[in-house]
Amino acid sequence: MTPLVLIVGFLGSGKTTFLKNLMPALAVEGLTPELIINDYQNARIDAEQFSDLAAEVKALSGDCVCCGSRDELLEALREFRHESGRVMIVETNGTTDSAQLIESLALDPSLKNFSPPVQLSVIDGKRWQRRFWHNALEREQARTASHIHISRSDSVTAERLETVLESLKECGVRGKRTDPVAFAKDLARISETAEETHGHEHPAECACGHHSHSQDVHGHDAHHFASCEIPLPEILERKAFDALMDDLPEEVLRAKGLVVFNDAPGEFFVFQKVGSDDETRLFPVGREPRVKTPLLLLIGPSLPVEALRERVAGLMPAR
């Protein structure tokens, strides 16, 4: 599998600067990056800065890749040439809904050769939570991150940096703090682990063609993936399902998936839950949805994947 990396951060947070420093660090690790840059107006201008640093650079100007430009992003990802040592990096624009983007990418059957998305959020040390009505979006972009990088940390006081770190903690940000060199090393480990798994037994594919990602590929704590996908039993009792959703750990920021209940055989339901306090919402999708394999998609950094898999494995199929 090819590492799929999302670089997220509010407008002007320093994403492009981080990428410029990341590119040579990836080269040291023997990785070849391909880059997609999304911005409202100047994506092509930014892309020119990386023409000599990445194997290929594509510019997506216009809407966010989480919504209006999503189809363009998916098309670009489907055209990616998967080879050993390659990494796919997407720099999103400043107003991207990161959870919505991760959800879209993780559930798309055509992207089965990519790893679950790895999100790095760039936090502006000077402007963090000083964006008035945009503070909520900035917090959400950070909360879904598996890694965080604090930009401009060398130009703020120690007191301000401590304030930012404490604020991130209070906002439930659990991402691993990193820098370009350390992040490149993490991606090298992910790439190496993925290739080792790819060279042995492939994870089983579900009926819709989507990979059921192997625990070995993305379950290791050091990887800090922002999402994981766990197959569910073909049929569940509602009580067992409700108990599972009620017991999700606080690290889970969003849960979504497909389920079939024993009291409605053959009927598929899409479910969604946002945060630990939200109620699970169910949406009937009939007997012939595009995806026909029950599954649970979880979004959140440093997810306890092994414990979650054991919890799901303990569910007895309904009879």
Please, could you describe this protein's structure?
The structure is a single chain. This protein is 32% helix and 22% strand. The chain has a seven-stranded parallel β-sheet with strand order 3-2-4-1-5-6-7, sandwiched between helices. Strands 8-12-9-10-11 form a five-stranded antiparallel β-sheet, with helices on both faces. It has helices at 15-28, 43-48, 70-78, 98-107, 135-143, 158-170, 180-198, 215-218, 238-246, 305-313, and strands at residues 4-8, 32-39, 56-61, 86-91, 118-124, 147-151, 176-177, 227-231, 254-260, 268-274, 281-286, 295-299. The two termini are 36 Å apart. Residues 198-223 have low confidence and may be disordered. It is an alpha/beta fold. A hairpin with a 6-residue loop joins β10 (268-274) and β11 (281-286). The chain folds into two domains: 4-198, P-loop containing nucleotide triphosphate hydrolases (Rossmann fold), CATH 3.40.50.300; 215-313, Hypothetical Protein Yjia, Chain: A,domain 2.
